[in-house]
């Protein structure tokens, strides 16, 4: 009996041991790359990868190393041949070399992912090592700064500053102050020391001032209505006295006078509410100002997109993004910004979320077409970008993604009879409580055929954190993504409006300009409220927000404001297909932490003031900065006035002084036969061999003085 009990005890004991978990790798070492992220220049030549075993093996062990994925050309840019790595018995480490070709060709940075496989006598630990190779030749051409652009000063004293406008007659700035729902009026007679003179409340007309424009002493402010109600445009004089108001569409987001001053155009964005239960139609309001000459109120014409509601399928097929839940075309299109032709006959309206623009015939008036902007191919070397905020170095590389241009600010210019459109390709998404299209690449399912190495791409250091849209990209409707579309293009583009084709895109210039800047490269792709290196790389990078084009010294220049890192990048675009880099200027402080005063942050609106329209005798660039609620001022020290241009061309110059003037007499530099015209072209005075112009009978305003040699100049009377 005792033997039976002993036998039972032994059986139970053995069963207990058998039920214990067995460590399968108890006697099997693990092999791993010592470093999984390796940064190197292409001039490195040889890069040695080190491998380690977790513990020495009693016998020889092996593992294969091979190429997993790259966006470069194997055998040309680098050499990594498959090989078997052998660890002799008792050895803990081994190495493997990758050869990098140091060429003289300008390329994007590239990655090489090496992987471990087919272990023999070992298990796999960190089995992928990525080499991030930085190209030596990828540099921006040095800035010319022919305009001699320099920071002058900044003004603070508002709670909001988004759009700024200048009146040369009163020498005042008018600023949309959304923080106080007001229009700020700033004395700009001394640009070195702007001072706030008034704040005109707009609460009686709506809940937020979104834009402001000035023409010949008239000020117009766009005001948003509450709860998706229609907005207002409020008119005032330069002293801030409100004259009248008119009703426009839902969420007037941008306002501009036509160059001839006969109309005001308003882009009514018509965004939905956060629950997406109300989605108003986007629209364009045209305010006809000609009745004012007969002391009649202005007439408002509302243009909608109802005529395109039946064209949803064809618009989508062409590339216009129409995707709001249950939205018609009219509801989905969201006008953002307006550019007007020099002859005031045509307008082009950016539809940012829709990645398209509308063409408006102002003579009819009607919306005649909706044109998609297309997509930017980031697999091309010239379109490289920095995709991750998790790498601690800038990696300007190519990826299998498409960028949606989605411009915010746009501007138009004309060369030899051809109209062009320049766009600041910021990017924007719909992100509401009831509907959001934003998602990170690491959180979506990638199609295994289109992305056979999805796990690598979805790492945070690569594409994993990049924000993309989920509204586009599942081309076969099977629930995973066959194509990736990111927001914005991190660039500015130029389109020929006659042919509706792109003639130029700045590619990766904007990011490279900041990267190589000796000051702001230290906070590359920082956001607009803290100095954190690369914390917007996984989103839209520098976010070009605003753009203007001005003719200066008989050349065309584009001034591009970048919302996140801040500052203004300037390009000469007289040859639209071949712009040249002029300068990058920024008045942000990069030396302090997030809780301190960072200076001027988030350029939203930019204007140019010519040397003839201010008292400095220099051209000025004035910027409204949204986050810091400041106005920054830059001088263009080499910007010639009209008279200086004529003298430079050996023309018979007409010089008068003082100009602007509040005196009774304005003198010529030498006696002249002259005629004086008002701004409408009506002649109001003439004299022969005159030493001066008697201005006592002239009202405040702008006049044109011409002599009998054909020279002319502008006279500003205050």
Could you explain the architecture of this structure?
The protein has a five-stranded mixed sheet with strand order 5-7-3-1-9, with no helix packed on it. It has a five-stranded mixed sheet with strand order 2-10-8-4-6, with no helix packed on it. Strands 46, 47, 48, 49 and 50 form a five-stranded antiparallel sheet that branches. It is mainly beta and 718 residues long. It has seven helices and 50 strands. The model is unreliable at 5-14 and 16-25 (pLDDT under 50). The termini are far apart. Helices cover 7% and strands 42% of the residues. The radius of gyration is 32 Å and the shape is elongated.
The amount of helix comes to under 10%
| Number of E strands | 50
Structural class based on helices, strands and sheet pairing: mainly beta
The main sheet orders its strands as 5-7-3-1-9
The parts where pLDDT drops under 50 for at least 5 residues are: 5-14, 16-25
How far apart are the termini?
Answer: 124 Å
Number of helices: 7
Radius of gyration: 32 Å
Strand content: 35-45%
For the biggest sheet, the summary is: 5 strands, mixed
Shape category: elongated
Average pLDDT, all residues: 93
Provide a short characterization of the protein structure:
This protein is mainly β and 718 residues long.
Present the secondary structure layout.
Blueprint: H1 2-19, E1 30-33, E2 37-41, E3 46-53, E4 61-70, E5 78-79, E6 83-87, E7 93-100, E8 110-120, E9 123-124, E10 128-134, E11 149-156, E12 164-167, E13 172-177, E14 182-187, E15 195-201, E16 208-215, E17 218-224, E18 230-236, E19 242-250, E20 252-257, E21 263-268, E22 283-288, E23 299-303, H2 312-318, H3 329-332, E24 335-340, E25 346-351, E26 356-361, E27 366-372, E28 375-377, E29 385-386, E30 396-397, E31 402-404, E32 410-415, E33 418-424, E34 438-440, H4 454-457, H5 460-464, E35 467-469, E36 485-487, E37 492-496, E38 501-505, H6 509-515, E39 544-552, E40 555-562, E41 568-572, E42 580-585, E43 603-609, E44 619-625, E45 630-636, H7 642-648, E46 656-657, E47 665-678, E48 683-694, E49 701-707, E50 712-717
Parallel strand pairs: 1-9, 2-10, 31-36
Antiparallel strand pairs: 1-3, 3-7, 4-6, 4-8, 5-7, 8-10, 11-45, 12-13, 13-14, 14-15, 16-17, 17-18, 18-19, 20-21, 21-22, 22-23, 24-25, 25-26, 26-27, 28-31, 29-30, 32-33, 33-37, 34-35, 37-38, 39-40, 40-41, 41-42, 43-44, 44-45, 46-47, 47-48, 47-49, 49-50
């Amino acid at each position: 009996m005792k033997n039976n009990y002993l036998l039972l005890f032994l059986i139970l004991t053995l069963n207990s041991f058998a039920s214990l978990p067995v460590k399968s790798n108890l006697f099997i070492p693990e092999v791993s790359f010592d470093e999984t992220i390796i940064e190197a220049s292409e001039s490195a030549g040889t890069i040695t990868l080190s491998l380690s075993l977790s513990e020495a093996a009693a016998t020889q062990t092996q593992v294969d190393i091979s190429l997993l994925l790259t966006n470069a050309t194997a055998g040309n840019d680098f050499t990594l041949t498959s090989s078997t790595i052998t660890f002799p018995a008792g050895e803990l480490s081994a190495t493997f070399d990758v050869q990098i070709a140091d060429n003289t060709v300008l390329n994007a940075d590239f990655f090489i992912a090496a992987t471990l496989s087919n272990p023999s006598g070992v298990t796999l630990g960190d089995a992928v090592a990525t080499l991030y190779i930085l190209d030596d030749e990828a540099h921006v051409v040095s800035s010319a700064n022919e305009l001699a652009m320099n920071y002058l000063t900044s003004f603070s004293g508002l709670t909001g500053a988004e759009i700024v406008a200048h009146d040369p007659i009163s020498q005042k700035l008018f600023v949309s102050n959304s923080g106080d729902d007001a229009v700020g009026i700033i004395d700009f007679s001394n640009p070195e020391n702007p001072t706030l003179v008034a704040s005109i409340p707009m609460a009686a007309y709506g809940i937020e001032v979104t834009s402001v424009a000035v023409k010949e002493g008239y000020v117009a402010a766009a005001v948003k209505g509450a709860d998706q109600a229609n907005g207002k445009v409020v008119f005032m004089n330069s002293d801030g006295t409100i004259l009248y108001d008119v009703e426009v569409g839902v969420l007037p987001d941008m306002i501009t006078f036509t160059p001839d001053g006969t109309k005001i155009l308003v882009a009514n964005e018509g965004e939905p509410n956060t629950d997406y239960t109300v989605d108003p139609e986007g629209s364009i309001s045209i305010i006809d100002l000609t009745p004012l000459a007969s002391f009649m109120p202005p007439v408002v014409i509302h243009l909608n997109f109802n005529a395109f509601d039946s064209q949803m399928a064809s618009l989508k097929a062409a590339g216009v993004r129409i995707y709001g839940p249950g939205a018609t075309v009219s509801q989905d299109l969201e006008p953002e910004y307006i550019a007007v032709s020099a002859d005031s006959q045509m307008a082009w309206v950016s539809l940012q979320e829709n990645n398209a623009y509308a063409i408006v015939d102002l003579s009819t008036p009607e919306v005649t077409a909706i044109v998609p902007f297309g997509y930017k191919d980031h697999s091309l070397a010239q379109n490289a970008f920095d995709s991750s905020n998790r790498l601690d170095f800038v990696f300007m590389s190519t990826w299998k993604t498409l960028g949606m241009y989605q411009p915010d600010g746009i501007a138009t210019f004309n060369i030899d009879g051809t109209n062009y459109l320049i766009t600041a390709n910021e990017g924007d998404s719909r992100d509401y409580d009831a509907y959001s299209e934003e998602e990170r690449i690491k959180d979506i399912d990638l199609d295994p055929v289109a992305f056979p190495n999805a796990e690598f791409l979805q790492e945070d250091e690569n594409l994993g954190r990049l924000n993309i849209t989920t509204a586009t990209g599942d081309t076969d409707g099977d629930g995973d993504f066959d194509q990736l579309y990111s927001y914005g293009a991190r660039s500015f583009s130029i389109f020929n409006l006659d042919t509706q084709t792109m003639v130029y895109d700045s590619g990766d210039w904007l990011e490279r300009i900041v990267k190589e800047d000796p000051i702001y490269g230290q906070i590359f792709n920082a956001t607009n409220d803290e100095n954190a290196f690369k914390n917007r790389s996984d989103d839209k990078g520098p976010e070009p927000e605003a753009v203007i084009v001005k003719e200066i010294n008989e050349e065309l220049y584009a001034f591009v404001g970048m919302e996140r890192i801040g500052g203004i990048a300037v390009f000469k675009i007289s040859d639209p297909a071949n712009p040249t880099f002029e300068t990058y200027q920024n008045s942000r402080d990069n030396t302090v932490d997030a809780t301190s005063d960072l200076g001027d942050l988030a350029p939203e609106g930019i204007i140019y003031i010519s040397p003839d329209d201010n008292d400095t005798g220099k051209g000025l660039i004035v910027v409204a900065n949204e986050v810091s609620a400041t106005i920054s001022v830059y001088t263009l020290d080499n910007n010639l006035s009209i008279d200086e241009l004529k003298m430079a061309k050996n023309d018979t110059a007409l010089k008068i002084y003082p100009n602007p003037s509040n005196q009774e007499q304005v003198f010529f530099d030498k006696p002249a036969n002259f005629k004086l015209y008002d701004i409408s072209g009506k002649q109001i005075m003439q004299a022969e061999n005159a030493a001066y112009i008697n201005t006592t009978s002239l009202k405040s305003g702008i006049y044109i003085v011409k002599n009998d040699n054909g020279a002319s100049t502008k006279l500003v009377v205050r």
